[in-house]
Design brief:
The protein has 305 residues and is an alpha+beta fold. The protein folds into 2 domains: 24-124, no CATH class; 137-153 and 176-258 and 266-289, no CATH class. It contains 6 helices and 12 strands. The protein has helices spanning 6-21, 69-77, 88-91, 109-123, 207-214, 271-279, and strands at residues 30-34, 49-52, 61-68, 84-85, 96-102, 127-142, 150-151, 188-194, 197-205, 222-225, 233-240, 281-297. Strand 2 (49-52) and strand 3 form a beta hairpin. Helix 2 (69-77) crosses helix 4. It starts with 5 loop residues before the first helix and ends in an 8-residue tail after the last strand.
């Protein structure tokens, strides 16, 4: 290179730098195979299990066990399920794979997702494009008159022990009004449904935590916290799920927990009135446009290891 003109040498260095920057991120080693239809253990998450990788106790090895192809796509693109569009096979419950991969030391979660995407391109011949789609958006704001949230109480004792791995969480103990009883000083939220009425107890919660819980009832809507509230609060919320876009609002009813009394009093308010009257907060609805990843092609059988 010492005999090249200075300008030519500079151009060559720029090209080499660009080529290096464009080298796709890949796993060091990856094993990919079609998973059995029977889960490898019980209980097993319905969408499969992802363990290890950046941010965990085993950062250089990541395992995707009995994972649905749609979950692989969600992980690779970093979007929820309703921002993935594909064939019945892609979106169904039968396409499952086992992947074990080595990750470079120091890699981030974002880089591991890019490695997974490149693996899907290489081994599954994934092709896709993006389209814009409108989604409902709800902004949580403070209602006229101000918030009605109580500052969170400190812990009044040690937290209860967590359930043993592989065992279901115990049913909540309800107070006389049908709300789950939760210990103070521990960030937690739990609801109890009875005849389409949901009663939720929040401890050490934030407005963002409230939105996270309400996401089950708001369906595919996006949410944003615009309250400006930065503290942690203890509160309860009672509302009817009828007419909400989530599963329960579309006709599903939650069974009453053992010992819960039937709802015979005044009907519960809808979610929007409940938020304003009980918490001094409001949900303001609008639209937002987001990218949807449309899967054009993905092999049902990946290339051999």
């Amino acid at each position: 290179m010492k005999n090249l003109p200075l300008a030519a040498a500079g151009t060559l260095m720029i090209c080499l730098g660009q080529a290096e920057a464009q080298t796709p991120l890949t796993f060091e080693v990856a094993s990919v195979r079609v998973a059995d239809q029977k889960p490898p253990r019980s209980p097993m998450p319905a969408a499969g299990d992802i363990t290890g990788g950046p941010g965990t106790a085993d950062p250089t090895r990541i395992s995707y066990t009995w994972v649905l192809v749609r979950r692989l796509l969600m992980t690779a693109f970093g979007v929820p399920l309703d921002q993935i569009s594909g064939s019945d096979w892609v979106m169904g419950q039968d396409a499952r794979f086992d992947i074990v991969a080595n990750v470079d030391p120091g890699a981030t979660k974002e880089q591991a997702a890019e490695m997974l995407l490149n693996l899907l391109k290489e081994r599954f011949h994934l092709t896709f494009h993006r389209e814009k789609k409108d989604f409902d958006m709800y902004a949580l704001v403070v209602a006229k008159g101000g918030p009605k949230l109580k500052d969170a109480a400190p812990a009044d004792g040690p937290p209860p022990p967590p359930p043993q791995p592989g065992t279901p969480a115990p049913r909540p103990v309800l107070d006389r009004d049908g709300f789950p009883q939760l210990p103070a000083g521990r960030t937690f939220a739990q609801g109890a449904g009875n005849n389409g009425v949901n009663r939720v107890t929040f401890r050490m919660s934030t407005p963002q935590g409230l939105l996270g819980m309400l996401g089950f009832d708001l369906g595919n809507a996006r949410t944003v916290d615009k309250t400006g509230l930065t503290g942690k609060y203890d509160f309860t919320l009672e509302y009817s799920q009828a007419g909400l876009p989530g599963l329960m609002g579309r006709g599903g009813l939650r069974a009453a927990p053992p010992g819960a009394a039937a709802d015979t009093g005044d009907p519960a308010p809808d979610l929007f009135n409940a938020l304003e009257k009980q918490l001094g907060l409001k949900l303001e609805k609008s639209k937002t446009q987001l990218d949807v990843v449309v899967i054009d092609h993905i092999d049902k059988t990946p290339t051999e290891n």
